[in-house]
Every structure is written in C-alpha cells, then in structure tokens.
C-alpha cells in the first residue's frame, strides 16, 4: 500500500501504483491539513472577501466579482469551458498517474478543497477508473488546464473513462463501483485544474520507461561488443575514475560485468589497437545520458510533491496568495533535457548497427545476410534505425524555447512543458525500436562468432530473445521482429532479469 502525505511520494512508489496496482490511501495528518484549508475557503465565501478564483473570475476575468450564490456555478462553468483537450487520449497509465499526482498535491493542504474531493480521486485510482484525457491543448502554464479539466469532469460524474479495458461514460463506471460524483464547491474546480500534473504524470511515465531503456542499452551494447570483438580495456575502471563522472564509471562497471568471461571480446592490440567511438565511448555517452536522467528524476520528485495551484492558502486562511506555481518551466526544461539525452542513446546505437551490418567495417557477412546479394539480410533494418534517429532530432527540438501569450495577454509567458513531455514519450518509443534493431543485429553477429563463446549474461539475453525471434536464415518481414524485440524490451521485468543473471544492484551500478 502507498500512503500519500503530499510530501513524500517517490517515483518508486509511483511505479508501485502504476505498474503493480498498489492500493493508495491518504495519511490522517494530511487530511487534517486539508480540512483546515477548506475552513478558510468557507470563511472567505461567507465574509464575501475578494480573493482570486474563489470570489472572482479567472485569468483576465480576475477583476470580475462573483456573487456568493454563484460560486458553485462558477466551478461548473470553469470545468466545462476549460475541457478543450483534443487529439488522441493520453495512455491509460498516464491518466492514472495524473489522478495520483493531483490527489497528492491537494493533500499538501494549501488548496482549499474538501476531503471528499481527494477521497473521490483515491476511489478512482483504487477502482482502476481512469479518465479519458486528450493529449493536446495545454500551454504548460496556468496549469495543465485543458487536460486536468477532463480529469475533473470525471470527478463530477461526467466525461469518459477507461474501465476494465473499455471506454465508457464516467457515470457508468462510477455507478458500477458505487462511487458518488462530487458537486464542486468554491475553489475546488480551480484547485483540480490549476497544476502541472499532466506534464509531470507524462514525465514520470517517461522516466520509468527511459530508466529501464538506459539500462538495457548497456546490455545490448555488450552484445554488440561481442559481435564486433570489441576491446575490453576501454572499460577499465582506471580510465573512467580519472575523469570523475559517477555515471560514466557505473556504465563502464556494468559493461565489464556483462562481458565478464566472454571469449568473443578482445585485448588491446590483439586484433586492433582501439575501437571506433561508438564502441570505445559507450561509458562516456551513455553515462552523460544518465547524468541528464538523474537531473530529470530529481525535478520530477520535487514536482510530484509540489503545491502547484493558485491561489494558495496559508496560516489557516490568514494569507491567501496569488502566485505562479502552476508555471511548468522546471518540468519543461527537464523534459527537453530528457528528450536530448534519450535521443542520444539511439544516435550511438544506430552507429553500432552500422558497424554490425557494413562489410567495410567488419569481417561478418555483408548486412548479416545468410546469402549476401541474393538476400538483403539486415540492410533495411539499418535504414529504419536511421529514419527513427532522424525523426528524433526533430522531436528533440526544445519545446520550452517557445511561448505564446494567452488570456488577453494576462498569461503572457508559458512553458509548453506538456508538449515537451509528449515529445519525450514519442522519442522513447523510437529509441526502444532502434535498440531493438541493434539487439537483433547483435544476436546475429554473435551467432557467426560462436554462441558458446559468449559471456554468461549476454548468453542469457540471447537464449531468451531467440525464443521470440529466430535466427536470420532467410529474408522475411523484419518489421515483425523489430516490434517483438521492442515489446520484449518494454515488458521484461528488467530488475528481475538482472538479478537472476548478473547479481547486481542496477541503481548504483554495483554488484553483489
């Protein structure tokens, strides 16, 4: 079970909720803070104070006062008018993450909602009712207004949801689970949609996928080292320690252990003096991507526990302050950084693919073909990898360098962080397919070298993937192989695989 406090949610706990269906509850202390904050909102309404978003309109309408009898209508109008998302829905796991993060943020006790709003969000999570939330339409400031409005509709019993593998009206799923829709009171609609939970939820899912992929690309590169008879000394710990980057040292250490015992890798000067950069510089390049991912993780875990709506209620209502915590710039930068870092894993992977298939760069059969000339072998797989890498270069353009004013220029600088997070997700899918192509090519190369001479760890990968993808003995529709390999990379329980075959603590690059 994961207990939310508004302060302590981690990516590991999020993974337990998103991937392992852990039950979610709220701590008693956090609910007490929520009650105190709500009492302050009720006093503001009763005393007819002028406070943004509680007794006024929104955005450019902040100077329009709202009569106390209309505060509920104000929230209803807000959610319906702001539910302007378009395009394909976010993946269901991202929608689940949004509900989790929104509940955790409200539990901080600065937003002024009633406990029932948070309890309803937790009921949705535990019943696996996930709002259908269109991906496009957020500027990444003023909160992820459009996406979170579609989430708020479900709390109200409206909109659509994913439930038990089907898309259906929210009210039908709520009725099946005995969950009562909520009529939003003063400030509650604004508190639900004024935040960065769309970009952050997408970012959390991105990070979980990118982290696994970054470990896997080390393993696939180890297979390629064997297929190309790479030189071991490039991974000597002394080389990396004298530079001083922890992540670089960790990658080198993983590679050393992954190829330990291999009879296919070579010593310096045995076949050649040094390898090409795509082999020799694996720790330097992969390690630099890990540095970026570590930065991303740090920012995500801060944002997961941040109060990001507006206004915020302090000192039991004595201070209600309008600020800008809804601005997504920190996550926008993190997502752009992630895009570049993950795309680079594919850039160097594609160069290793080229070295595996190009007969001018190795002594293997041309394009790993069983009958070069008559059969093309892996020739066009490299084309596919090159295309994906090129597409990533377009997607990796920073979304955060753009801004466009909105709300009659009241909201005159925005982050575009949600666009950045969506593009990061696309890049991750592309990178996984590039790594899948390297995996297929590397498996073929080690077959030519001798499977019985492989390291025990790489041999374990070989044996597992060969159950899905047979050796290339005849040209076939390789698209199916690429997708199978990519699915294996995505779905395999990598920590368990590593523990079984390598006995390592992968989070620190250490070995037991």
TrEMBL record:
SUPFAM superfamilies according to UniProt: L-aspartase-like
Catalytic activity: L-histidine = trans-urocanate + NH4(+)
Enzyme Commission code: 4.3.1.3
PTM remark: Contains an active site 4-methylidene-imidazol-5-one (MIO), which is formed autocatalytically by cyclization and dehydration of residues Ala-Ser-Gly.
Subcellular location(s) per record: Cytoplasm
Top-rank EC class of the record's enzyme: lyase
Main location: cytoplasm
Molecular functions (GO terms): histidine ammonia-lyase activity
Keywords: Cytoplasm, Histidine metabolism, Lyase
Signal peptide residues on this chain, from the entry's feature table: none
Pfam family, one: Lyase_aromatic
Family as reported in the entry's similarity comment: Belongs to the PAL/histidase family.
Name by which UniProt lists this protein: Histidine ammonia-lyase
Species this protein is from: Priestia iocasae
């Amino acid at each position: 079970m994961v207990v939310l406090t508004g302060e302590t949610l981690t990516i590991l706990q999020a993974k337990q909720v998103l991937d392992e269906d852990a039950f979610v509850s709220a701590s008693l202390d956090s609910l007490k803070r929520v009650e105190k904050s709500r009492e302050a909102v009720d006093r503001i309404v009763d005393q007819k104070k002028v406070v943004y978003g509680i007794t006024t309109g929104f955005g450019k309408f902040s100077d329009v006062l709202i009569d106390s009898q209309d505060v509920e209508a104000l929230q209803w109008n807000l959610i319906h008018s702001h539910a302007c998302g378009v395009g394909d829905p976010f993946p269901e796991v991202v929608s689940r993450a949004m509900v989790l993060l929104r509940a955790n943020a409200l539990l901080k006790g600065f937003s002024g909602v009633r406990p029932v709003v948070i309890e309803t969000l937790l009921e949705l999570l535990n019943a696996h009712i996930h709002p259908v939330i269109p991906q496009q339409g957020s500027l990444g400031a003023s909160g992820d207004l459009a996406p979170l409005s579609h989430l708020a509709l479900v709390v109200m019993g409206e909109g659509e949801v994913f439930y038990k593998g089907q898309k259906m009206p929210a009210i039908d799923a709520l009725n099946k689970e005995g969950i009562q829709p909520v009529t939003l009171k003063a400030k509650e609609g604004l508190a639900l949609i004024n935040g960065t939970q769309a970009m952050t939820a997408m970012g959390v899912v991105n990070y979980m996928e990118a982290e696994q992929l970054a470990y896997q690309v080390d393993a696939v590169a180890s297979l390629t080292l064997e297929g190309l008879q790479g030189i071991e000394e490039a991974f000597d710990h002394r080389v990396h320690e004298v530079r001083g980057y922890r992540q670089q040292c960790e990658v080198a250490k993983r590679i050393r252990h992954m190829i330990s015992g291999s009879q296919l890798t070579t010593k310096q000067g045995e076949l050649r003096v040094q390898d090409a950069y795509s082999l020799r510089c694996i720790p330097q390049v992969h390690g630099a991507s890990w540095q970026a991912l570590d930065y991303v993780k740090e920012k995500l875990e801060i944002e997961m526990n941040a109060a990001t709506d507006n206004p915020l209620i302090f000192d039991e209502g004595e201070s209600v302050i309008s600020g800008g915590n809804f601005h997504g710039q920190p996550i926008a930068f993190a997502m752009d950084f992630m895009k570049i870092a993950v795309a680079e894993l594919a850039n160097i992977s594609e160069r290793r693919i080229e070295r595996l298939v190009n007969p001018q760069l190795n002594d293997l059969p041309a394009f790993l073909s069983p009958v070069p000339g008559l059969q093309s072998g892996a020739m066009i797989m490299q084309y596919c990898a090159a295309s994906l890498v090129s597409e990533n270069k377009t997607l990796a353009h920073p979304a955060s360098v753009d801004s466009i004013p909105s709300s009659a220029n009241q909201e005159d600088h925005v982050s575009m962080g949600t666009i950045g997070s969506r593009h990061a997700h696309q890049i991750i899918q592309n990178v996984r397919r590039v790594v899948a192509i390297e995996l297929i090519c590397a498996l073929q190369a080690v077959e030519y070298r001798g499977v019985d001479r492989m390291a025990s760890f790489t041999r374990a990968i070989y044996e597992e993937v060969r159950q899905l993808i047979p050796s290339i003995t005849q040209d076939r529709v390789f698209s199916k192989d690429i997708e199978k390999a990519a699915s294996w990379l995505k779905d395999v329980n990598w920590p368990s695989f590593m523990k079984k075959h390598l006995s390592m603590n992968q989070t620190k690059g250490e070995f037991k």
